[in-house]
């Protein structure tokens, strides 16, 4: 699919879109051997783009849904040599990276892409994409604490946004609860900190949904490509709250 030249340059990491526009107007960019001076020019993955005489890599945009296992880092590399999510995508030629992150010991749904623009938008808190977690916690959750989760909990000096919360099951003998929590924020260790603030340490955590997407048909360590319709729905999520 053809996209504006300045957008392609920005997605390739050459410069910001505004700086890319300036470079085009200054005659520093050529497409298929022709110097471009107009901002409306569109290009696709088959075009040869040079910036100051150096080629840029224009990759086809790809989108994957991955069932992240526990004990895997949500990154493309790790200086401690631990397993990272991209280790599961060795046969994928594109340079993909995760949208957001899941903790090392948290399993569940994670999206990976090389579409930097969509990734940045989806991670921005203003777009309020719901994420559904299921947590096994120590303790039998009280109704008052369930209400607190729904109204917001103070963590790191700031109250969390309203959430949806319900107890799926309880084990009175082991004194544990299975709780489903739906949030749209993405603060560091947020779910664990919310439960800990109320006195319920998380033993096990899984993210089961991201927006309208879930893990149906996947087992831990497996992935699938998003359909074109799913990609469009993701993009619609980012325009809903503009």
Helices and strands, with pairings:
Layout: E1 3-4, H1 5-11, H2 17-25, E2 29-31, E3 34-35, E4 42-43, E5 49-51, E6 54-55, E7 63-68, E8 97-98, E9 106-113, H3 116-123, E10 131-138, H4 143-151, E11 154-155, E12 158-159, E13 164-171, E14 176-183, H5 190-197, E15 202-210, E16 213-214, E17 223-225, H6 228-239
Parallel strand pairs: 9-15
Antiparallel strand pairs: 1-4, 2-3, 2-5, 5-6, 7-9, 7-17, 8-9, 10-14, 10-15, 11-12, 13-14, 15-16
Molecular structure report:
The protein has about 240 residues and is an alpha+beta fold. It is about 20% helix and about 30% strand. The protein is built from six helices and 17 strands. The protein has helices at about 5-10, 15-25, 115-125, 145-150, 190-195, 230-240, and strands spanning about 5, 30, 35, 40-45, 50, 55, 65-70, 95-100, 105-115, 130-140, 155, 160, 165-170, 175-185, 200-210, 215, 225. Strands 7, 8, 9, 10, 13, 14, 15, 16 and 17 form a nine-stranded mixed beta sheet that branches. A hairpin with a 4-residue loop joins β13 and β14. The longest helix has 12 residues, at about 230-240. It is elongated and about 75 Å long.
How much helix is in the residues? 10-25%
The ordered H/E elements are EHHEEEEEEEEHEHEEEEHEEEH
**CATH topology heading of the largest domain:** Alpha-Beta Plaits
The low-confidence parts are none
Characterize the overall form. Answer: elongated
> Number of helix segments?
6
> Quaternary state, please?
single chain
Mean pLDDT, all residues: 91
What value does the Rg take, in angstroms? 21 Å
